[in-house]
């Protein structure tokens, strides 16, 4: 049996203490491919490449069994907040 979704979640949760984490098994159930969205305060002040390295480091014990990891989002809590929509120009009456 390969790496489970729960294994990936536990590894990331332990290393990054995320406030939001979504792990999707994209391998059809064999545990070889995952998509990840993670929001963590530990990403503050880090560039995107550093954030991805942090996720990959957290998964290092499992990487021999994982074929592909796609990190869709690696955000700080502030970046994860919905951005206000710009006010539409209203015609003058």
List the helices and strands and how they pair.
Layout: H1 5-16, E1 20-25, E2 33-39, H2 48-59, E3 68-75, H3 77-80
Parallel strand pairs: 2-3
Antiparallel strand pairs: 1-2
Total number of helices: 3
Structural class: alpha+beta
CATH topological fold name: GMP Synthetase, Chain A, domain 3
What is the CATH architecture annotation? Answer: 2-Layer Sandwich
Please name the fourth-level CATH homologous superfamily: BolA-like
H/E series = HEEHEH
Assembly state (oligomeric): single chain
| Shape estimate | elongated
Strand content: 15-25%
Question: How many whole angstroms does the radius of gyration measure?
Answer: 17 Å
- Ends apart, CA distance between termini: 68 Å
Measured as a percent range, the helix fraction is 25-40%
Low-confidence stretches: none
The overall number of domains is: 1
Mean pLDDT: 91
Give the C-level CATH assignment.
Answer: Alpha Beta
Lateral strand order in the biggest sheet: 1-2-3
